[in-house]
Task: inverse folding
């Protein structure tokens, strides 16, 4: 099993969610996060004063999948989140040691 974490632009969430549903991904966790990479933030003017906005709002998607589905999930997210502009996001793949469903006690892939 693997954990797929994707950081994407907020307005691409519905596109990514729909694309993942089409390939049979049923569960995911979504968080509103802030951060920066090469984008490095930007300046805004509010009531005549200039402010540096260091952290840019993003959406973090977390999905646990069987190891043989990682490539398909990764490619689906990449295609659905793509705008071609800076700040499209990142996808991280992490090993998942164990998953346990609290309600039933199921473990491993049965718990996904």
Result:
């Amino acid at each position: 099993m693997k954990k797929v974490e994707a950081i994407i632009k907020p307005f691409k969430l519905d596109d990514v969610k729909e694309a993942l549903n089409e390939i049979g991904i049923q569960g995911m966790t979504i968080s509103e996060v802030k951060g920066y990479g090469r984008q490095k933030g930007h300046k805004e003017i509010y009531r005549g004063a200039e402010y540096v906005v260091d952290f840019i709002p993003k959406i973090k998607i977390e999905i646990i999948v069987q190891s043989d589905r990682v490539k398909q999930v990764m490619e689906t997210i990449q295609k659905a989140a793509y705008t071609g502009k800076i700040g499209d996001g990142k996808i991280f793949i992490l090993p998942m040691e164990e998953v346990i469903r609290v309600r039933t006690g199921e473990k491993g892939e049965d718990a996904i």
Summary: The chain has a mean pLDDT of 91. Residues 70-81 form the longest helix (12 residues). The CA atoms of residues 8 and 79 lie 12 Å apart. The beta strands are 2-8, 29-35, 42-46, 49-53, 56-65, 89-95.
